[in-house]
Write a structure and sequence with these properties.
CATH superfamily of the largest domain: P-loop containing nucleotide triphosphate hydrolases
CATH topology of the largest domain: Rossmann fold
CATH class of the largest domain: Alpha Beta
Radius of gyration: 20 Å
Number of helices: 12
CATH architecture of the largest domain: 3-Layer(aba) Sandwich
Number of domains: 2
Number of strands: 9
Order of helices and strands: HHEHEHEEEHEEEHEHHHHHH
Strand order of the largest sheet: 2-5-8-1-9
Shape: globular
Largest sheet: 5 strands, parallel
Structural class: alpha/beta
């Protein structure tokens, strides 16, 4: 793994104990120019991951707590009449940042969800007929509670597709939890984390990721995986061409992080569950969904068979 990226993972791991794989996936999502959805129970470290990642990447960070009475203007901003200037002045909303934590996105109404998801797709917002560009990079980390909890508005499949990856942090293992008990609330130390990246270095990394090579054999393997989701009736939906491109782009970022100049099958296998599960399975995280994705990886041959 490239030195600065390896150091960034280690630095975030100082405050999010025992979750190195999820940290690496979240960073790959940022490098692949996507957005991240984290679905888990409250108190699992979702906010800690978002804030720590922004800190080590040297990016501006905003957090928005979504509620059922939130309006789109609370996200994108609003124009307010200024009597002294005899005109309207625009007050930007929290979306005008580089890393936005949309906390509990499924606790707000579909109208407000759509306002954020439009900004994610277009990298801009239009208010009072004027289009305003969002900062570069613009990385949304949205969290949502399991749909079994009360007071949620599930994201429809078309909006889930706006997220490059979906992760679940899960409970810490015994060693990490013991270290957490001994060290106290790790969120207090986020401000002490080293800044190891910058908007400029991230832009350069993204350019280099685009140069990662893909062989014909690798593309054939990718196509077999995509084909399997479209013809196995246990999947709710087949992977779309946009979803397949997202999988390839995430695999390129993973290959770059591990110092490869080409995409290997293990790069696709590493990111596939996070990139594909919310695109081909009905919303919700569970062992049945995980086992179906595992079976997909086990049954689709890396090399073509005659």
């Amino acid at each position: 793994m490239r030195t600065s990226i390896r150091e960034a993972v280690d630095e975030v791991a100082r405050v999010l104990l025992g979750k190195e794989e999820q940290i690496k996936l979240a960073l790959a999502c940022l490098l692949a120019d996507g957005h991240l959805l984290i679905e888990d129970l409250p108190g699992m470290g979702k906010t800690t991951l978002a804030h720590a990642l922004a800190q080590v990447a040297g990016l501006r960070y905003q957090r928005v707590q979504f509620t059922s009475d939130m309006l789109p203007a609370d996200i994108v901003g609003v124009s307010i009449f200024d009597a002294a200037a005899n005109g309207f002045s625009f007050h930007p909303g929290p979306v005008f940042t580089q890393v936005l934590l949309a906390d509990e996105i499924n606790r707000t109404t579909p109208k407000t969800q759509s306002a954020l998801l439009e900004a994610m797709e277009e990298q801009q917002v239009t208010i009072d007929g004027e289009t305003r560009q969002l900062p570069e990079p613009f990385f949304v980390i949205a969290t949502q509670n399991p749909q079994s909890q009360m007071g949620t508005f599930p994201l429809p499949e078309s909006q889930l597709d706006r997220f490059l990856m979906r992760l679940s942090l899960g409970y810490p293992d015994a060693a990490a939890e013991r270290e957490l008990f001994k060290g106290g609330d790790s969120r207090r130390h986020i401000g002490d984390l080293k800044i190891l990246l910058s908007p400029e270095s991230l832009a350069q990394i993204k350019t280099e990721i685009e140069q990662i090579a893909t062989s014909d054999h690798l593309i054939s393997y990718l196509q077999r995986l995509v084909h399997a989701t479209r013809h196995d009736t246990r999947f709710s939906f087949g992977l779309s061409p946009r979803g397949a491109l997202a999988l390839l782009h995430a695999a390129k970022a993973w290959a770059y992080m591990h110092s490869r100049a080409y995409v290997a099958p293990e790069d696709i296998q590493a990111v596939l569950p996070s990139v594909v599960s919310h695109r081909v399975l009905s919303p919700g995280i569970g062992s049945a969904a995980d086992s179906l994705i595992d079976e997909l990886l086990q049954t689709v041959d890396v090399l073509a068979t005659s």
